[in-house]
Amino acid sequence: MSPVTHFLTGWVLANAADLNRRDRAVVTLAAVVPDVDGLGIVAEILTRHSQHPLLWFSNYHHALHTLLFALFVSVCAFFISTRKWISSLLALVAFHLHLLEDLVGSRGPDGFNWPIPYLFPFSNRWIWTWGGQWKLDAWPNIALTIMLLFVTIWMAIRCGFSPVDIFSPTADRSVVAVLRKRFQPTTSTS
After folding, report:
1. Torsion 35-39-45-48 (CA) sign
2. What is the mean pLDDT of the chain?
3. What residues have CB less than 8 Å from 9, skipping those under 6 apart?
4. Helix/strand/coil (H/E/C) assignment for every residue in 17-59
5. What integer is the mean pLDDT of 69-98?
6. Which 8-state DSSP code applies to residue 82?
7. 121, burial (CB in 10 Å: exposed 0-12, middle 13-18, buried 19+)
8. Distances (CA, A) of 78 to 7, 12, 83, 96, 154
9. Would you say the pTM of this structure is higher than 0.85?
10. Per-residue pLDDT tens digits for 64-74
């Protein structure tokens, strides 16, 4: 799935509990961070025509989609959050939602089903894959992203903050004001 889908999934999940701005950011980041291994695509693209191309994306994407990394992210969430237990638990759930989304919707254009080496580096016995994996641009992925976007807008109007709050509270107030002006019904007084 796209990083946008993972991001919105994490943000919606973070709002399942009464978390402050930092804790919401921690849970949201936990839903995106498994794809940090995808940054190898930059080196791969830059060296693809060289004599010794670096196949970092092809060889290592999903290398961090593991239980070990999930536990690491959860422990980090515990130490940097305010509501430690709930934030670290939600970070663990967000990480696993990322894995689930990738399991069902990350097939490449060449038909490759990205496997998830869940117990790596301890074992290669439990590698997750699903033969019905949707392509990245398949309608279910697009539908899920649109649904998450609608939920995010609804929550921003209702709660008074949006995912923009993670980056800039000032910009977020403007975003929420625009959303409320556009989508909240006005009551007229007679």
Report:
1. negative
2. 90
3. 31, 94, 97, 98, 101, 148
4. CCCCHHHHHHHHHHHHHHHHHHHHHHHHHHHCCCCCCCCHHHH
5. 97
6. S
7. exposed
8. 19, 19, 8, 16, 29
9. yes
10. 889 999 999 99
Whether the link from the prior residue into 121 is cis, omega within 30° of 0, is yes
| Burial (CB count <10 Å: 0-12, 13-18, 19+), residue 169 | exposed
Question: What's 187's DSSP letter?
Answer: P
The answer to whether 74 and 29 are in contact (CB under 8 A) is: no
| Cα distances (angstroms) measured from residue 85 to each of 22, 30, 34 | 14, 14, 21
Write down the pLDDT at residue 187.
63
Structure tokens at 53: 């191309």
First to last CA, the chain: 50
Side chain identity, residue 93: V
